[in-house]
Design brief:
With 249 residues, this protein is an alpha/beta fold. The protein has a single domain, classed as Vaccinia Virus protein VP39 (Rossmann fold), CATH 3.40.50. It is built from 8 helices and 11 strands. It has an 8-stranded mixed β-sheet with strand order 6-5-4-7-8-10-9-11, sandwiched between helices. A 3-stranded antiparallel β-sheet has the order 1-2-3. Strand 1 and strand 2 form a beta hairpin. The longest helix has 12 residues.
């Protein structure tokens, strides 16, 4: 990965993001690197694609499968479409500028991935929050796409034996697992993401599958990754996880 201004370069593709409210960040790179597309045949969908980074990562990982990217913001959707067209997998990538709550495809997806908006609002009122542009508000806050709405959509459109990946703050773990269970999604794995050995996990990456019951039937596998080591450099575990995409790993 290499960034220069509004350009974000990975080993096999480049992402332009000057028109996207939310830029590519380390957490989304970890989610895309950690997520393994389901081993069954079927299309992939990235919900809230932004610049298209997760859709591009899935296209690189799952050769031969079609990848659909959903984005509500017009400028971001156009940017994603441009990034897709410039990638090696242009014929397998498509972006739809739509609200997920209005999108009811007849097909089911083998893999669903999302780095959804998850801030309920500001911890304390600030002028910066009040002045936040609408596109950034949609990208950051869950006012338009709550976990319950997302999980219920996934439950209706995920193939049996398919995988669903998402990312939420560590403080919301109990809430996320409860809402997913209510939507008949069972959690298989959780990856705790930590900035350094001095801090606790700030976000969790989740892997779900369809469940016939409303409770978990499988042993929950917990993993963790620390981004920087004690010397402040990228850790070996972080490098190993993201090596497929970062230019210098």
């Amino acid at each position: 990965m290499k960034t220069k201004g509004s350009v974000f370069a990975c080993k096999q593709f480049v992402v332009e993001q000057q028109h996207c409210a939310m830029k590519v960040n380390t957490d989304s790179m970890i989610l895309g690197s950690w997520a393994s597309p389901a081993p069954i045949a079927g299309p992939i969908v990235d919900i809230g694609t932004g610049s298209g980074i997760l859709a591009l990562m899935m296209a690189q990982k799952k050769q031969g499968e079609f990848v659909v990217a959903i984005e509500i913001d017009t400028l971001a959707a156009r940017q994603a479409a441009s990034n897709f067209a410039a990638s090696p997998w242009a014929e397998r990538l498509n972006v739809l500028r739509t609200d997920l709550t209005h999108f009811e495809p007849v097909q089911h997806y083998a893999t669903i991935i999302s780095n959804p908006p998850y801030f309920a609002g500001p911890a304390t009122p600030t002028n910066a929050y009040k002045q936040q542009v609408r596109s950034r508000e949609l990208a950051r806050t869950a006012c338009e796409l709550s976990p319950a709405i997302l999980f219920n959509w996934v439950s209706r459109h995920l193939k049996l034996s398919g995988y669903f990946y998402c990312l939420y703050p560590a403080a919301r773990e109990e809430e996320i697992l409860t809402l997913a269970s209510a939507a008949k999604l069972s959690c298989e794995e959780i990856l705790a993401i930590t900035h350094s050995h001095k801090t606790t996990a700030h976000v969790l990456a989740f892997k779900f599958h369809q469940s016939e019951k409303s409770d978990n039937e499988y042993q929950l596998n917990r993993q963790s990754v620390v981004i920087r080591n004690k010397q402040g450099q990228y850790s070996n575990e972080f490098k190993a996880l993201c090596r497929e995409f970062y230019l210098h790993f």
